[in-house]
Write a structure and sequence with these properties.
Elements: E1 6-10, H1 20-24, E2 30-36, E3 42-46, H2 57-61, E4 67-71
Length: 73
Amino acid sequence: MTVKNIRLIIDKERCKGCLLCIEACPRGVLSVAKGINRKGLKHVEVKHPEKCTGCGMCIVMCPDCAIEIEKES
């Protein structure tokens, strides 16, 4: 199931790379980015946005509130 009006946004500067969101995502939408943020930490990025259903499990698991879902109109 693909939801076309969902956009997953990750604030790479807030992300500390704990990877809890990657483990929580049932669709494999997220992955570890190749780069680092300003703190020198690996961060998570959206790798397969087309797979996101907007379930919100990544948001629930993120201890740093670095993820949000935007519903586009």
